Amino acid sequence: MDHTSPAFQILDEIFGFDGFRGTQLPIIERTIAAQHSLVLMPTGGGKSLCYQIPALVLAKENRRIEHAKPITVVLSPLIALMKDQVDVLIARGIDAAFINSSLPGDQRQTRMKALAAGQFDLLYVTPERFRKPDFVAALASRCVVLLAVDEAHCISQWGHDFRPDYTRVQEIRELLGNPPTIALTATATRTVQTDIIAQLGLTESEIVIFHEGIERPNLSLDAREVWSEEDKLANIAEVFARTPGCGIIYFTLIKTLLRFSEFFHDQRLPHLVYHGDLPRGERRQIQEQFIDEPDHLVLATNAFGMGIDKADIRFVIHADLPGSLESYYQEIGRAGRDGRPAECLLLYDQADLATQLDFLRWSNPDADFYYRLHNFLRHERQSINAFGIEWLREKLHAKQRHDRRLETALGMLHRYGAIEGTLTPLAIEEINELPDELRDAQKLAEKLDRDQRKLLSLVQYVRTEQDRSEFIREYFMGDDTRVDNWPQD
User: Fold this and answer.
1) Residue 375 — pLDDT band, cuts 50, 70, 90?
2) CA–CA separation, 343 vs 335, rounded Å?
3) Looking at the structure, do residues 204 and 223 belong to the same domain, yes or no?
4) Which domain CATH number covers 266?
């Protein structure tokens, strides 16, 4: 491709860059040629350009389609990020839009009318949007010239951030006429890569994998074993002393986050607090404050960072153990995007392991639990709709009311069509047969075992004596199914 090509012109005139980085150019060339790709590129490596530039080239090349104007559809799980991405594109003169649940109903209807009328070169949606018949009808009048699947690890049941509706991507592709597809992620082991390709409905011979590796040489990686919250605070104070600037401290539990926040207040250390129990508007305000103002410290659960595009984060501290190396790598990837040195510290208290094991159990209900829940829904639907999810939890769990398997199981039953209605608020309209996937005790047990092994790999990362960057590289580039025994006290 020469420098007078449309792709180079768009790179220069619209995005303001004088050259492509890494494997961007061959990915873009392949995408424009209507061929499929799986792109693995570190956070901040420029994944978005790999589909945005082809989208604009293909839109221009196909303008003369008489009955269905061309469009690129971008599947993304990140509602918080969509608006920011679209705002940036619009500021560059690109006809882009998003349609998701954050829009008031009248605005969604206006955008769907515009979509059907031929507006927008790029459209950002979640895969859940394809459940809506009015959206599918509006998109039916368009020619989808490219499907981009962002955060593609969400497709795989073996991925660290599995989203059930992402398993419908093959169905979505067929609905769109099987367009050329580009799937993108920063984190995917070999097992997850294989699953992504299969879930797209493609074979390995049809798709090329572009893997730029996972190295971030400007990140200093450290992990320490600790034995108390006081020990954690002492290690955090060390980072503060030697690494001034903007930073994130991640916590697993909101109650732990709030305890640390109280301590920071007592020490008169300014900070922001972000977690899922805050109202949506307040969460959005905190995100904007963190992005727009310098040198903020935020104490957050892992929900923070989705949609955060800030180049000068100087440190990321994990005060609690994350759930897997994939999620850990994704979160530390928010540090040092400006290329300058940044510090990443993981603090491991073995007591935190029990919390993560509970989370794994809650996110992996067994076949018996699915059967009991499905049977209860069949016979008690009227009471469930009247009294809500907490009443249902009490009936199912009796004395274990903190158990959160119910949310996972309801979501999976809804995904597979075993129940119809809404989950928030809980209003079940119809009960269908329990699908085979949720009856298969062996498959469900294998999934739990795989998730536990991923957690074990993270413990091994903490305790390894080899270079931590090399440990991560071997995990993502090698055999992610091999782990040793659980650590002992």
Assistant:
1) very high
2) 8
3) no
4) 3.40.50.300
